[in-house]
User: What shape does this take?
Amino acid sequence: MKKMITVFKGDGIGPEITDCVLEILESAGAGLDYEIYNVGEAEWKRNGALIPDEAYASFERNRVLLKSPITTPIGHGFRSLNVTLRNKYDLYANIRPAKSNIAVKTPFSDVDMVIFRENTEDLYVGVEEKIDEDTVHAKKIITRKASTRIIRDAFEYAKNHGRKKVTCVHKANILKMSDGLFLDIFEQIAKEYPEIEHNDKIIDNTCMQMVMNPNQFDVIVTPNLYGDLLSDLASGLIGGLGLLPSSNLGTDYAMFEAVHGSAPDIAGKHIANPTALLWSACMMLEYLGQKECAGKIRRAVDEVLADGTCLTPDLHGTATTEEYRDAIIRKIREMN
Ligand code: NAD
Assistant: This one.
């Protein structure tokens, strides 16, 4: 029986990359059915709701969501819908694998790290207070509960995926109480996994080391804001945002999305790279136990990237999104 999932099409390049990914999933014979919704800024302008009630209800029924990027106004307007979804469904573990691909030339060929970003607290709670005309305070929240579960997940992942080392990234030298708590919990939990090497690094040093010597990083666990920044940095190391997928996992719900945003600068130009959303869909298939189908799609993407003749402009090619999609579908058909 096919698994029903919810799909949010999002803003900017969202609809075009979603259509493309759904066609590839179809060609690979994914055991999925879809409930598809328009959400985000465009939907709000059309119908006055950023996420329609029926879209929320669908996710609550299906518990698995493939989500495209959503535009968030900067400095004003509504709260990020991404943050809203992560909090509403307690999607506390944001897992972002960044791996070099032989086909994509970057200064480093040996990047293979997985970032575990805490997804529900830190500065992202969005609690800001205007003290006077010239002063604003923002709250950074770190709790034992949220820190414990993300750190434990990072070690469990390392144990179950043959990873050797977990690095905690923080700023506990300055934020002695908040990041200090995160680091203390990390040190405690690390003792339960003696077979896995562990260390910690300050965020600024981590940024420098990531661009000098990225292959020293294996699994990284870190609070929300540093995880956000580090994963964009990691995407730069492997060829750009078009190649970085993610899963957002909670106890009851799972959401899969590209790390990148709605890319309004290239929306509608047919040049968006759908790989990050496609690999997010592969993570979803693996989560649902459809590993063979995910493997087939991953192999097809690898072959198209390695062939190098049909790449989107972000990877220095001239192919449209649709030409790239068709090249992947051809590879999948050869395997069927
Ligand atoms: P962005 O990630 O949308 O784009 C950054 C740069 O990367 C742009 O030049 C863009 O063209 C390029 N890029 C991104 N994805 C690409 C792809 N798949 N193929 C080719 N090029 C790609 O970041 P931004 O411009 O800072 O943000 C745009 C909007 O997206 C903002 O409103 C932001 O809040 C939102 N956003 C949403 C999410 C999400 O929904 N998860 C994540 C990040 C940003």
